[in-house]
Amino acid sequence: MTDQDTTSTAQLAQPIDLPCGSRIKNRFFKSAMHEAMATRDHAPTERFATLYRRWAEGGAGVLMTGNVMVDDTQLGEPGNVALEDDHNLAVFRSWAEAATVNDTHCWVQLNHPGRQSPATINPRPWAPSAGRLEGEYGKFFAEPRELGREQIHDIEHRFAHAARLAKQAGFTGVQLHGAHGYLINQFLSPLDNHRTDEYGGSLDRDADRMRSLVETYQAVREAVGPSFPVAVKLNSSDGQPGGFSEDESLQVIQHLADLGLDLIEISGGTLEKPTFATTTGDKEDRARGVYFSDFATRVKQLDLHGTVVCLTGGFRTPADMEDAIEQGVTDMIGIARPLVLQPDMPQRILDGDIAPNDRFKLPWITTNVKMLDKAFNAVLVISWFELQMNRIGTGKDPNPKIGGMRALLFAFTQHGPAALTPRRRKNHN
């Protein structure tokens, strides 16, 4: 390793302490991706353990699981894992044990989809308010029912219970998914939340659109105790006029930091205004650069009381990662898709095997049929990365030469027609 290499990774290699007292060994954060490997009764398989052991051995400080649903009747995607009771806890323990080797944290991303549950999976979804999903994808989702107060409290209890079970299984933290148009995001957005009770209205007090998130966080914290990491994934904004704005997001982050939140992961978009993957991944990356960096800079100016900031999306060179930390844009570097194709990328960067300006290029994913590429653009990308994760989970190496047609066939074989309906992109990072 050269002096230049040592200098280029100095910040990335530094450990960081969370408000709860836990220490993360470095600044690499593997962000959530939908693995799509659950059993028919929504339990993880041993493939999860194999996949996550590969990532843990690859050097990241934190591994975030894909969506783990708190209610198995309310799923966001086909192949979701659900954690409601201790029925499958032995398999969760195996997953956690594998994912925490090499002094690695592995946190469970807890979620409820609200109305963003495809009709092929759930014909009777719940939401803060009635009203179908708008936009071109709305036809794929059923009309939701409005949640009553008792049902809201039941969901908050489910989050807390799932967090307790995750800790019992051996995972080292949890994250509440409050982004991407799922239930918590729906409560926060004035476009989705039209309630006139204490769970609607402004963001000027706890008794408002923030209330459900705050109550959920407090219930989870009580369930896991003060020394267990609790994180939140939050939109910088919904990206829509009249929706959840950046100023409102900053307000929510400040309140959560005041309550003792350990980590905030910054993301953005909803199904109605998505940040969808395109089949030409590298071209997309070069056009966008690092996602949400301006907003992350605003977050870092808040009085965060030690809450760690993770910025996810668009990091493709070690130099960009190092600069983002050195310049105070973020505390941790969120990465997803590149880690599917290079599970040991963090360790290779730290060892100097990847030069500071070496750029990771995402592949062009195509079926070689233009009509199919256009019709299944985002689904095609999701399915392709799910196939690669499945390969790793069965002990194989990723294979970037696999074509898009094989990915679509894999998804259809695994999950039937539901796999080909629009899904909010998890692996845009």
How would you describe the overall organization of this protein?
The chain is of the alpha/beta class and 429 residues long. It has one domain: TIM Barrel (Alpha-Beta Barrel). The protein is 36% helix and 13% strand. It has 15 helices and 13 strands. The chain has helices at 3-8, 46-57, 89-99, 149-169, 183-188, 211-224, 246-258, 281-288, 293-300, 318-326, 337-341, 345-350, 370-375, 377-393, 404-415; strands at 16-17, 23-24, 28-30, 62-69, 81-82, 105-111, 126-127, 145-146, 173-178, 230-235, 263-267, 308-312, 332-335. Strands 3-4-6-9-10-11-12-13 form an 8-stranded parallel beta barrel, surrounded by 6 helices. A two-stranded antiparallel sheet has the order 1-2. Helix 3 packs across helix 4. The radius of gyration is 20 Å and the shape is globular.
Annotate the secondary structure layout:
Layout lengths: L2 H6 L7 E2 L5 E2 L3 E3 L15 H12 L4 E8 L11 E2 L6 H11 L5 E7 L14 E2 L17 E2 L2 H21 L3 E6 L4 H6 L22 H14 L5 E6 L10 H13 L4 E5 L13 H8 L4 H8 L7 E5 L5 H9 L5 E4 L1 H5 L3 H6 L19 H6 L1 H17 L10 H12 L14
Parallel strand pairs: 3-4, 3-13, 4-5, 4-6, 6-9, 7-8, 9-10, 10-11, 11-12, 12-13
Antiparallel strand pairs: 1-2
Helix pairs in contact: 2-3, 2-14, 3-4, 4-6, 14-15
Q: What's the quaternary structure here?
A: single chain
Describe the largest sheet: 8 strands, parallel, barrel
Spatial extent as radius of gyration: 20 Å
- By CATH, the superfamily comes out as Aldolase class I
Which key features would you list for this structure?
15 helices, eight-stranded parallel β-barrel, two-stranded antiparallel sheet, TIM Barrel, 13% strand, disordered C terminus, alpha/beta, globular, 429 residues
